[in-house]
């Protein structure tokens, strides 16, 4: 489950039917992609084989698109930058040609097709601002007649939260990264392990050991060491939300005279809300952004209205768009 090359004719709007047990399985896999079938079965009072059958069905139907490692690249002196693009005078086929071109660019962490104020968003990894500048200039030059507008931002910290909307509850669990750049040194084998886990988060230790030509015990020690260094934070699952009838929204917030305690209160609100799954602080046009997943647009409008009303003293504006398709998630695209 690596890079997905886009073929527009294959993009489907069909809804895959899932039941309450499927939702709970997806919730657990999104929280920890390496949880065993036995552990899920114990949690849901089902056999290991029953869980295996359900997960394989979800994989086959591409509801589950990818298992990936959550890697804190800030610990290694890297950061993320995002480029949002809005096109002009191009059709759907040409837009997907551009998406395919961007998928081939180095150090691409995340790429998505959007609907709303932007058409696509790309997130890249870098440890040099000159490198970011060169990459952006390359994209702007290559598609100069097709890009109407662009926006650039640098991420300072972000958090991923559990998919509480799948079960109707939120446990307050989240994984955060950023705030400061460090210089944690990794050896070549550790970097190789990260590069494999970044796109194959559920690979068995025995298979990983075979790839590395190392004993399984050595690989387990490497994974434990990466966790101890706070480079490897966990594992998650990329779910095709539209295939199970959900709408994935991104919201950019602009603040007015926001105090630190105001922002902390808002982030806590995000963390505890079952429909809010992601938060990002960055240097750029928006002061803060979040991702909200809902069944309907009216549900989204109510949640956004509640957020603005609850924090009316400092939220000045909020702009939103819909994530149509996520094409890549790779937290370590540098090895």
Short descriptors:
alpha+beta, Arc Repressor Mutant, subunit A, eight-stranded antiparallel barrel, 10 helices, disordered N terminus
Entry summary:
With 335 residues, the protein is of the alpha+beta class.
What is the assigned CATH homologous superfamily of the domain at 14-65?
Winged helix-like DNA-binding domain superfamily/Winged helix DNA-binding domain
Described by strand count, sense and barrel closure, the largest sheet is: 8 strands, antiparallel, barrel
Number of helices: 10
If you consult CATH, what is the topology of the domain at 14-65?
A: Arc Repressor Mutant, subunit A
What is the CATH top level name of the domain at 14-65?
A: Mainly Alpha
Adjacency order of strands in the biggest sheet? 2-4-3-11-8-10-9-5
State the CATH architecture of the domain at 14-65. Orthogonal Bundle
Please tell me what the overall shape is. globular
Overall pLDDT score? 92
Please give the alpha-carbon distance between the first and last residues.
17 Å
The assigned structural class equals: alpha+beta
Summarize the amount of helix as a percent range: 25-40%
Unreliable residue runs: 1-12
The secondary-structure element order is HHHEEHEEHEEHHHEEHEEHE
Radius of gyration: 20 Å
DSSP E strands, number: 11
Strand content: 25-35%
Walk me through the structure.
There is one protein chain. The protein is an alpha+beta fold. The chain has a domain at 14-65: Arc Repressor Mutant, subunit A. 35% of the residues lie in helices and 30% in strands. It has ten helices and eleven strands. It has helices at residues 20-31, 37-44, 48-60, 92-103, 129-142, 188-197, 205-212, 216-228, 260-272, 297-310, and strands at 64-71, 79-87, 108-116, 120-126, 147-161, 174-178, 232-239, 247-255, 276-283, 288-294, 315-329. The strands form two sheets. An eight-stranded antiparallel barrel has the order 2-4-3-11-8-10-9-5, surrounded by four helices. Strands 1-7 form a two-stranded antiparallel ribbon. Strand 3 (108-116) and strand 4 form a beta hairpin. Helix 7 crosses helix 8 (216-228).
């Amino acid at each position: 489950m690596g890079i997905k090359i886009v073929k527009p004719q294959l993009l489907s709007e069909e809804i895959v039917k899932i039941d309450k047990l499927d939702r709970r399985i997806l919730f657990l896999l999104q929280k920890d992609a390496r949880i065993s079938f036995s552990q899920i079965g114990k949690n849901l009072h089902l056999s290991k084989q029953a869980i295996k059958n359900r997960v394989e069905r979800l994989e086959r139907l591409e509801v589950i698109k990818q298992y990936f490692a959550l890697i804190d690249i800030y610990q290694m002196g890297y950061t993320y930058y995002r480029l949002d693009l809005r096109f002009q005078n191009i059709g759907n086929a040409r837009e997907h040609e551009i998406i395919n071109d961007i998928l081939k660019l180095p150090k691409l962490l995340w790429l998505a097709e959007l609907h709303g104020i932007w058409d696509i968003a790309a997130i890249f990894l870098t440890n040099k601002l000159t490198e970011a500048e060169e990459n952006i200039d390359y994209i702007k030059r290559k598609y100069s007649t097709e890009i109407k507008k662009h926006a650039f931002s640098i991420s300072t910290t972000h958090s991923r939260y559990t998919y509480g909307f799948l079960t109707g509850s939120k446990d307050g669990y989240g994984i955060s990264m950023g705030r400061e750049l460090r210089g944690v040194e990794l050896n070549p084998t550790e970097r190789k392990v990260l590069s494999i886990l970044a796109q194959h988060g559920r690979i068995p230790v025995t298979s990983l050991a075979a790839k590395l030509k190392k004993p399984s015990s050595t690989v387990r020690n490497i994974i434990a060491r990466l966790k101890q260094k706070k480079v490897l934070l966990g594992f998650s699952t990329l779910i095709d939300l539209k295939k199970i009838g959900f709408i994935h929204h991104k919201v950019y917030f602009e603040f007015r005279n926001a105090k630190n305690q105001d922002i902390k209160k808002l982030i806590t609100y995000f963390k505890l809300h079952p429909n809010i799954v992601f938060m990002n602080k960055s240097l750029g046009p928006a002061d803060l952004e979040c991702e909200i997943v809902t069944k309907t647009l009216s549900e989204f409008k109510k949640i956004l209205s509640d957020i603005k009303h609850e924090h009316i003293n400092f939220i000045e504006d909020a702009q939103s768009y819909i994530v149509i398709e996520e094409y890549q998630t790779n937290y370590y695209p540098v090895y």
